[in-house]
Amino acid sequence: MSERTILAYSGGLDTSVAVKWIKDKYDLDIIAVSIDIGNVANLEAIRKKALDIGAIKSIVIDAKDTFIKSFIYPSLQADALYQGKYPLHTPLGRPLIAQLLVDVARKEGVNIISHGCTGKGNDQVRLDVSIAALAPDFTIVAPAREWNMTREETIDYARQHNIPIPVTVNSPYSIDENLWGRAIECGALEDPWKEPPRDAFTWTREIDDTPNQAIYIDIGFDKGIPISLNNEILSGISLIQRINSLAGDHGIGRIDHIEDRLVGIKSRELYEAPAAVVLLNAHKALEEMVLTKDQLSFKAKVADEYANLVYNALWFTGFKQDLDAYIQSTQRYVTGTIKVRLHKGNLQIVGRKSPYSLYNYSLATYDKGDKFDQTASTGFIHIWGLPVKTQSQAQSLFNN
User: Fold this and answer.
1) pLDDT by residue (tens digit) across 337-383?
2) What is the CATH number for 262?
3) Is 130 exposed, middle or buried (CB count within 10 Å of its CB: 0-12, 13-18, 19+)?
4) Per the residue annotation, which of 47, 94, 126, 254 is the catalytic one?
5) 116 exposed, middle or buried (CB, 10 Å; 0-12, 13-18, 19+)?
6) Are residues 238 and 345 both part of a single domain?
7) Catalytic residue of the set 4, 10, 14, 47
8) Is there a single domain that holds both residue 35 and residue 73?
9) Would residue 390 count as lying in a domain?
10) Same structural domain for residues 194 and 129?
C-alpha cells in the first residue's frame, strides 16, 4: 500500500496537475483538502474534481468564520498594510490553511503535506514555515518547486493527461481570492508598463461604469472590530460581503503594486480588496479620534512591523503574540461609528463619532463656546522653544 500525503487542493492549475505528478513521482496516495476561506464558487465541484483526477479522498473545510475572527480582524485592528498598500488577504490565509492541513494530517495519521506553491513565490515560505512551526516532524512535498515547468508547459501537461484546468495560454491569470481580497498574477500583468486588461478585474467596476450618484455608509465598530453597517448588526461574513459589493460597484479597492517579495524579487501584483480598503480606512479614522498622539505614532510603527510579520511568514511566533498583546490593548476604546462616502473610485471619511472621543468641541472651536485659555500659550511657547533658543545663542547655528 502506498504512503499517503495531504494535499492543499484549490482546484487550480498547479494543484490539479500535482495530484497526478505526486502519484507518479513519489508513489503517494493523495488526500485532497480544500479549505473555504471565502469566495470559492463551488466547493462540492472542486471536491469531486479531486476524486476524478486521482485523489483517494477529498475533504472540504468551511473556515470562513475562523478566518475572519482569528486572522482578518486582528490584522484590521493592527492597521496592517504591507508596504503601505497591500491588505494581506493572501498571506493572512496561509497560516490558517497550514494549521488546518496539520489538523487533518494528524487525524488521518499522515505526516507528509503537499502544496502547489512555486519556488518563486511567497506562499511556499508561508506554508512551509507555518507547518514547521506546528509540526516540525512532518515532511513537505512541493511539486511545483521541483518540476521546473513553465506555466505553458504545466498547461500542456494537464492537457496530455486529461486534467481539467480553469486557465488557458490565452487567459493565463493566476487567481487567489478569499473574503478579504483577490490577487491576480501572470499574463499581461507581468509587463509593469502595460495597463491591466479589463478582464483582470471581477470585483470592481471600471470608473466609467460606476454610478454617478455617491452613496454614504455608516460602519459601527466595537473595540476595533466592525459590527454594523448602516445601523444593522451583521455577522463578519455578511458585513464584509456587503461592503465588497457596495465599494466594488463604485470602483473602490483596486491596487496595482510593484511589490518586494519575501524571496528577494520585485513583482507586479494586482489586487482587488474593496471591503479591506474601506474598513482599514474607517478603522484608522476612528483611532485618530480616540487614541492620543503618542499612541497613534507608536501604533503606526507596530502596524508596519505587523504587516511585515504577516507577509514574511512569521504568524506562529512569539513576536506575533507580543504584538497582538499590544494591539489588543490599543483597541479598548476604538468604539464608535464612521461615515464613509463612496463615489467614482474615491473613498472619503466624512463623519466620525465615539463615546470615547478625545475631540473636544469647546477646546477646538474658534467660535462662541471656546474654552481654550489662550493666555497660557505665551508661557507654553517660551518653555517649548527654550532648547531651540538656547542652542541658537550658544552655537550660532544659523548666523553663519
Assistant:
1) 999 999 999 999 999 999 999 998 888 888 888 888 889 999 999 99
2) 3.90.1260.10
3) buried
4) 94
5) buried
6) yes
7) 14
8) yes
9) no
10) no
370 located within any domain = no
- Is residue 40 domain-shared with residue 125, that is, in the same domain? yes
Rounded CA-CA distance 354/220 in Å is 10
Give a yes or no: residue 70 inside a domain: yes
How far does CA 392 lie from the centroid of its chain? Answer: 49
Does any domain span residue 77?
yes
Whether 181 and 272 have beta carbons less than 8 Å apart is answered as: yes
C-beta atoms surrounding 399 within 10 Å: 7
Instruction: Give, for 83, the enclosing helix (H) or strand (E).
Output: none
* 182 classed as catalytic: no
174 is catalytic: yes
Q: Are residues 211 and 346 in the same domain?
A: yes
- How many whole angstroms separate alpha carbon 218 and alpha carbon 229? 6
Amino acid identity at 351:
G
Asked whether the predicted pLDDT for residue 2 surpasses 70, the reply is no
pLDDT tens, residue by residue, 158-187: 888 888 776 655 556 778 899 999 998 877
Q: Which one of the listed residues 70, 106, 151, 174 is annotated catalytic?
A: 174
Band of residue 188 on the pLDDT scale cut at 50, 70, 90: confident
User: How many domains is the chain built from?
Assistant: 2
- Based on the residue annotation, tell me whether 191 is a catalytic residue of this protein: no
Helices 89-108, 123-134: crossing angle, 10 deg rounding: 40
Distance, CA of 169 to CA of 147 (rounded, Å)? 19
pTM of the predicted protein model = 0.91
Domain that holds residue 163: 3-169
Sheet strands side by side (includes 232-233): 232-233, 225-229, 215-222, 336-343, 346-353
Q: How far apart are CA 230 and CA 233, in angstroms?
A: 8
All three cell numbers of 145, joined, read: 518547486
Name residue, grid cell 485523489: 55
Q: In this predicted structure, which of 89-93, 220-224, 363-367 has the lowest mean pLDDT?
A: 363-367
Q: Can you give the pLDDT at residue 187?
A: 75
**How large is the greatest C-alpha to C-alpha distance in the chain, in angstroms?**
88
Cell numbers 496592517: residue: 80
Sheet bearing 254-260, strands edge to edge:
174-178, 181-185, 266-272, 254-260
**β pairing state of 28-36 and 3-8:** parallel
Concerning whether 34 is annotated as a catalytic residue, the answer is: no
Q: How far is CA 111 from the centre of its chain?
A: 29
How do residues 106-136 score in pLDDT, each as one tens digit? Answer: 999 999 999 988 887 889 999 999 999 999 9
Angle at 249 between CA 251 and CA 214, to 5 degrees: 85
